[in-house]
Design a protein that fits this description.
The chain is an alpha/beta fold. It has 10 helices and 13 strands. The strands form 2 sheets. Strands 1, 2, 3, 4, 5, 6, 9, 10, 11, 12 and 13 form an 11-stranded parallel beta sheet that branches. The protein has a two-stranded antiparallel ribbon with strand order 7-8. Helix 7 links the parallel strand 10 and strand 11. The two termini are about 15 Å apart. The model has no long low-confidence stretch (mean pLDDT about 95).
Length: about 290
């Protein structure tokens, strides 16, 4: 029997941080499976946003999509995830990525080999979160007798990946792979083949989604969440229509191997709380029918 996909929400980086608790509560009330928070220069840090969301809710899982490996020492990240996971057991989903390279350069954190850093980082992070004493002298990650004082129960680690090498790496070292919203539907299968997932490996796909009346118009005129950078997604990389039409399109991608969807609203969504309600109470049930 084919597994029903999960449906979560990505908190847009264009939303003021003081609205994160309200968005988290609305997402939980709507029955969404997960809330994903950004790490975005210079708007949001994933750990802080995750703490806000977790503190405002009781059961929804919260993922970091993605914590930027170059800007945070892995021991500090492990402590942060451990503290969150021990206070909110079963609800924390670490997501780790390269960071957006122009921003990494802007803050002086860009490295020569983001791939090497990501591999060393995820391996060390998992060892630390598992309560191991870690000694490693890698190209970027160097730890000398480091062990968490308060390790959590085991946590899954999702790896953000795009290029062939990072996709293969994510399949090898991650518990799941997060694909960005810039992956076209007709490339999902080839990306999955590069990941070569073992049983239980999650394939998460971010998608701009618009639901209900005026949804197609919103997609056509979407300014994106980074208008100053000109990063406006093509409507071909988005999903829109009635709840049934949106669900059908997501199920088509489920059949290509996607296990989890991360919805992002358009940059011109008129009512974010209503959008969240429609996702959770109209679209999500159809994914389980």
């Amino acid at each position: 029997m084919t597994e029903s996909p999960t449906l979560g929400l990505m908190v847009p980086p264009s939303v003021p941080p003081e609205l994160v608790p309200k968005i988290a509560m609305a997402s939980e009330a709507a029955g969404l499976d997960c809330l994903w928070v950004c790490e975005d220069c210079f708007a949001a840090t994933a750990i802080t946003y995750a703490a806000l969301a977790l503190s405002a809710t009781e059961k929804i899982r919260v993922g970091t999509g993605f914590l930027s490996a170059p800007v945070r020492n892995v021991a500090t990240a492990a402590m942060d995830f451990s503290i969150l996971a021990r206070n909110f057991p079963g609800r924390v989903v670490p997501g780790i990525g390269h960071g957006w390279q122009p921003h990494m350069a802007q803050v002086g954190a860009k490295v020569d080999s983001p791939l090497a850093l990501l591999e060393e980082y995820v391996i060390a992070l998992r060892d630390l979160l598992n309560g191991n004493t870690v000694n490693t002298s890698g190209r970027y990650v160097r730890l000398d007798d480091v062990r968490l004082a308060w390790p959590p129960d085991p946590l899954p680690i999702m790896v953000g990946a795009d290029g062939p090498k990072s996709l293969r790496l994510a399949g090898r070292i991650g518990d799941g792979t997060i694909l960005t919203s810039f992956v076209p539907k007709d490339e999902i299968t080839s990306r999955r083949e590069l990941i070569n997932p073992v049983p239980g490996h999650r394939i998460l796909l971010a998608r701009t989604i618009a639901v209900g009346a005026g949804s197609l118009e919103r997609l056509q005129t979407d300014p994106g969440h980074y208008p100053e950078l000109g990063l406006v997604k093509s409507p071909s990389l988005a999903v829109g229509g009635s709840a049934a039409e949106v669900a059908d399109q997501l199920l088509d991608m489920r059949d290509l191997g996607v296990t989890d969807f991360i919805a992002s609203p358009t940059g011109n969504e008129p009512d974010l709380v209503e959008y969240i309600r429609a996702l959770g109470q109209e679209v999500r049930p159809l994914l389980r029918a």
